[in-house]
Amino acid sequence: MKEESNRTDRVFGIHPLMEALRGERSVERIYIAKGRGGTAVEDLIRLARSKGVPLHFEPREVLDRIVGGTKHQGAMGLVAAKAYGTLEEILARASNKGEPPAVLVLDGVEDPRNLGAILRTADAAGFHGVVIPQRRASGLTETVAKSSAGALEYVAVARVVNLTQALESFKAAGLWIYGLDPGAEKSYLDIDYRGPVAMVVGAEGEGIGRRVLSACDERVRLPMKGRVASLNVSVAVGVMAYEILRQRAVSR
C-alpha cells in the first residue's frame, strides 16, 4: 500500500464511505481489509464499482497502521480535495467570458506536483479548464492543492473515464485539438491558437497514448536544440500556454 499522506481527506468506515460515494467530491480509491465480509461491505463494493472507483484489498494490519488507531471498520477511502467539474462547465466558463474556449487535456500525468504546477499555469494563462483521466493519473490531492499555490480554487477540473470520448465532445463543440508530440513535423509556433482549442499533453517519457493521440486534429512539437530529449511536463505546458495567451492578447 503506497503512502497516502499527501491526500487531503480520509474517510473511515462503511457508512461514511457510502455517503462519500453519493456526495459531490470524488472518491479517489477505497481500501478494504481482506476477509472483511457482510452485506454492508458488499453494498460498498458494488456502489464503488458502479462509479468506477478503484478498490484495493489489504491485510487489516496495514489499514491499522495507516489510520493510526482510528476505528475504520475494515474500510478507508481517499477523497479528492475539490469536487470535479464537467466538460460542459468548462465550455460554459468560456462562453460566460465571451472568449473562445482554451482547454488543457492531460494524459497520464501522475506526479501531483506537476499537476499542481500545471493548474497554476492554467489559471495564470487564462485557460477555462483542465481535463484529466480517471485512471493512471493524479487526482486532486492535498499535494496538488499546495503545488497549485491556490490556483486549484479557480481552475475547473473535469475528470473523465475516457479521454478520447472527451476529445470527441470538444470537437462537436467546435474545438480544434492539438497534441504535443515530439515526433510531429510542425512546431507549436506555426499554429494559430486564437480560435477554440484544446491542447493535449502526455506524461513525461510515455507521452500521449496512441488512441488519444489519434483523436487529435493536429500534432505539434516543441523545438529542442539541447541534448535533453524533453522538458518537464509542467514546463512544456507553460511554454505552450503562454504562446496561446500571447496570440489571444495580440488579437484583441
Low-confidence stretches: 1-8
Would you tell me the structural class of the helices and strands?
A: alpha/beta
- Report the end-to-end length measured between terminal Cα atoms: 52 Å
Number of continuous helical runs:
9
Q: Which geometry do the CA atoms define?
A: elongated
What profile does the largest beta sheet have? 7 strands, parallel
Determine the strand fraction and express it as a percent band: 15-25%
- Encode the helix/strand succession as letters: EHEHEHEHEHEHEHEEEHEH
Calculate Rg over CA atoms.
20 Å
Number of strands: 11
How much helicity do the residues have?
25-40%
Q: How are the strands of the largest sheet arranged?
A: 7-6-5-10-8-11-9
Taking all residues together, what is the mean pLDDT? 87
Description:
With 252 residues, the chain is an alpha/beta fold. Helix content is 37%, strand content 21%. It is built from nine helices and eleven strands. The chain has helices at 14-22, 39-50, 60-67, 87-97, 112-124, 142-147, 163-172, 210-214, 233-251; strands spanning 9-12, 27-33, 55-58, 75-79, 102-107, 129-133, 157-160, 176-180, 186-187, 197-202, 218-221. A seven-stranded parallel beta sheet has the order 7-6-5-10-8-11-9, with helices on both faces. It has a four-stranded mixed beta sheet with strand order 1-4-2-3, with helices on both faces. Helix 5 (112-124) runs parallel beside helix 9.
